[in-house]
Amino acid sequence: MLLPTSELFSSGEFPLTKGGVLPELDIAYETWGTLNAAADNAVLVCHGYTNNQHAAGPGGWFAGVIGPGKAVDTDRWFVVAANMLGSAHGSTGPGSIDPRTGRPYALDFPDITVGDMVNAQIRLLEHLGVGQLAAVIGNSFGGYLTFHWATEHPERMRALVPVVSAIEGRGTMADPEKIAQAFEAACPGWNGGRYYGNEDASGVYAEMLRLRMETLENYGYKSGIRELAEPWAHAFDANSLIVLKRAAVQFDAKPKVSAIKAPVLYVLSRTDNLFPPSIAPATMKLLADAGVDAGFFEIDSENGHRAPSIDGHLWEQPLRAFMERLD
Q1: What are the percentages of helix, strand and coil residues in the chain, rounded to 5?
Q2: If we measure between CA atoms, which residue out of 17, 230, 27, 24 comes closest to residue 120?
Q3: Architecture of 7-168+252-323 per CATH?
Q4: What is the pLDDT of residue 221?
Q5: Closest Cα partner for 287 from 268, 251, 263?
Q6: Which residues of the chain have pLDDT under 70?
Q7: Burial 245-269 (b: 16+ CB within 10 A, else e)
Q8: What is the per-residue pLDDT across 82-99, written as a single tens digit (0 to 9) for each?
Q9: Which residues pair with residue 8 across a beta bridge?
């Protein structure tokens, strides 16, 4: 579902890292600010697992740190946020129509990787005329994309900011299969993921709502949970949960960490249960041993994994100082 604030870039055949080709590629995206004449003031912002490309402006999930006069100053930087490949907010994913069959891919969608997501971003950035990126900033799952950019395309950016994330994925390949099995068990109309157009009667919407409410509770929300969960449960695709999880658990940038050339600001939240600060020492040592110029900042917040979005004021200054180091 394309957000009303987004634009859509459409392209032709898109080769995948594990083989095969998507016959068509759509990438939904939003931009803020203006690309300069040198085409080198772009900041790429990468979203989380179940989030979207609306990173800034009214209701934007990073609006506390992106905008005029903010840490990522859109009077200076051209900010680009793209809905990741395989997601459900306008980019090609399981809910998209496969032109070869005329019906949604569902779980026939290819086994994509974080590398495929980055390659799709590269195609979008080339369309927008962007040269070297000033920075790549990634929140949660988006941090995986940030570390992939860092290790696979080290010359293409001047700074890196992975936020509440890690240099390798969490979990195993059993995890996405457990998600699929849970939907099959809970939803009488799951039909192997081919539930499109039958979200309510199939039981898929009810299960998505339950999952979202559970997630929000784990994030620390105390009230209004159902009202927050309902729009997401209507808009997101259960199959995207599975496809994106497969990509996430396979991600590991550690073997190529020595390729990183740009300075790194690694940001975690004191109360995050998903990516706790306890992972920072090993990550920082890995970066230091590889000769990477890396700094660490811990957000002193009670808001767990959502601290970077809710408490922008608590990490705006270190991010601002880091961005001001750039040419």
Answers
A1: 40, 20, 40
A2: 27
A3: 3-Layer(aba) Sandwich (3.40)
A4: 77
A5: 263
A6: 327
A7: bbbbbbbbbeeebeebbbbbbbbbb
A8: 999 999 999 999 999 999
A9: 28
Strands (E), the chain: 7-11, 14-15, 21-22, 25-32, 42-46, 66-67, 72-73, 78-82, 97-98, 103-104, 135-139, 160-163, 264-269, 294-299
Residues of the chain with CATH 3.40.50.1820: 7-168+252-323
Give me 206's structure tokens: 């009810």
Is the Cβ–Cβ distance between 232 and 1 less than 8 Å? no
C-alpha dist (Å) from residue 306 to 36, 110, 217, 323: 32, 30, 12, 22
Q: Which residues are catalytic?
A: 140, 272, 305
Question: To 10 degrees, what angle do helices 238-249 and 141-152 make?
Answer: 40
Quote the CA–CA distance of 148 and 154 in Å, as a whole number.
Answer: 9
Calpha distance 214→182 (Å, rounded): 14
Cα distances (angstroms) measured from residue 32 to each of 65, 165, 267, 319: 13, 24, 23, 18
Distance CA 217, CA 73 (A): 33
What is this structure's pTM? 0.96
Dist CA 175 CA 294 (whole Å): 31
Contact 164, 188 (CB under 8 A): no
Neighbours of 47 (CB within 10 A): 24
Residues in contact with 288: Cβ distance below 8 Å, sequence separation at least 6, in sequence order:
294
